[in-house]
Amino acid sequence: GNMAFAGKYEFEGDENYDDFVKKLGLPGDKIEMGRNCKIVTEVVQNGNDFTWTQHFPGGRTTTNTFTIDKEADMETMGGKKFKATVKMEDGKIVADFPNYHHTAEICGGKLVEISTASGVVYKRTSKRIA
């Protein structure tokens, strides 16, 4: 199995953050909180089983646990809960959230996540720290 994702990554930079979160309808305080937020993403991978945790400054965490090609309970950036089936396509993790399409891949040792909502493409890059 391809264990490329396992590790800990720290937010390095992003593109189109404001346009994207406005499209999602996030409230102003959430938007400010998330801007240039030094989120640490921790990925534990066991074959097709993933535990994907985001650690926010101040101690808040969001964890999504899923198996490739099986329906799982997920939580969005805005904290909404829903069911989704996560797929693996060309080494990328692909998930459809209720109002955006999300991909994650390892590119040059970095975690690159791309979310698309109503034509706005939000890209977040995190560098490996462990």
> Biggest sheet, strands in spatial order?
4-3-2-1-11-10-9-8-7
Helix vs. strand class: mainly beta
| Apparent shape | globular
Distance between the termini: 20 Å
CATH topology: Lipocalin
Order of helices and strands: EHHEEEEEEEEEE
Please report the first level of CATH classification, the CATH class: Mainly Beta
Query: Beta-strand level of the residues, as a percent range?
Result: over 45%
Mean pLDDT: 91
Please outline the major beta sheet.
9 strands, antiparallel
Number of domains: 1
DSSP, total strands: 11
Radius of gyration: 14 Å
Number of helices: 2
* The named CATH superfamily: Calycin beta-barrel core domain
Low-confidence stretches: none
InterPro entries: Calycin (IPR012674), Fatty_acid-bd (IPR000463), ILBP (IPR031259)
GO molecular function, one term: lipid binding
Family: Belongs to the calycin superfamily. Fatty-acid binding protein (FABP) family.
Subcellular location: Cytoplasm
Give a verbal description of the structure.
There is one protein chain. With 130 residues, this protein is mainly beta. It has one domain: Calycin beta-barrel core domain (Lipocalin, Beta Barrel). The protein is built from 2 helices and 11 strands; from the N terminus they run βααββββββββββ. It has helices spanning 17-24, 28-34, and strands spanning 7-15, 40-46, 49-55, 61-67, 71-75, 81-85, 87-89, 92-96, 101-107, 110-117, 120-128. The protein has a 9-stranded antiparallel sheet. The longest helix is centred in the first third of the chain and has 8 residues, at 17-24. The radius of gyration is 14 Å and the shape is globular. The mean pLDDT is 91. One of its GO terms (molecular function) is lipid binding.
